[in-house]
Design brief:
The chain is an alpha+beta fold. It is built from seven helices and seven strands; from the N terminus they run H-H-E-E-H-H-E-E-E-E-H-H-E-H. The strands form two sheets. A five-stranded mixed beta sheet has the order 5-4-3-6-7. A two-stranded antiparallel sheet has the order 1-2. A hairpin with a 1-residue loop joins strand 4 and strand 5. Helix 3 crosses helix 4.
Length: 175
């Protein structure tokens, strides 16, 4: 609609005029106290996943890769320590790898060493979870039933079967 285009144009113009200092300014945001730039990163994630809320049920082909998808994945990566440590419950000294395929290919490694943290390298993961990128993101955001994604092969695992099963079913960190 014309109103939407007007609002988007005004917002894009406003953002384009902002300086690095504007983006580095710290303030109270809905996500807590953070920089405006960090707040905008979280908003990019929100917009990306809400676009999927519309496109996936309508079976519309979307732009699931590219920079917005990478930024959305970064939000999930930030939450993976919590997911692995608290929801999956991986033991201290163990690691798990998430191998993403499809529109965006990536490998996310998490090691538990006192607490679960994302690491660049992981020599011997207890389990490797392989997922289509879009399915992984939809699972992490609670948008699809894990049992359906497991049954149709969009998510699978190798290595420790019990850990893989829990990981595939417990990726959700937001709604």
């Amino acid at each position: 609609s014309g109103r939407l285009r007007d609002v988007v144009h005004a917002r894009v113009t406003e953002l384009a005029a902002m300086t690095d200092d504007d983006f580095e300014a710290v303030g109270d945001m809905p996500t807590g106290r953070s920089s405006y730039g960090r707040f905008m990163e979280a908003r990019t994630f929100d917009v990306w996943i809400h676009e999927r809320d519309i496109s996936v049920p309508l079976r519309l082909v979307g732009q699931d890769g590219g920079q917005p998808a990478e930024m959305a994945l970064e939000e999930v990566r930030r939450a993976l320590g919590y997911v692995v440590g608290k929801k999956i419950g991986l033991d201290d000294g163990a690691g798990i790898a998430f191998q993403l395929t499809g529109a965006l290919e990536a490998r996310l490694n998490v090691m538990v060493d006192g607490r679960a943290v994302v690491v660049d390298e992981l020599a011997d993961p207890r389990c490797t979870v392989t997922a289509d990128f879009l399915a992984f993101m939809l699972l992490a955001c609670g948008r699809i039933d894990p049992e359906v994604a497991i049954a149709d092969g969009r998510i699978s695992w190798s290595g420790d079967d019990a850990i893989g099963g829990v990981a595939a079913r417990q990726l959700r960190f937001t709604t």
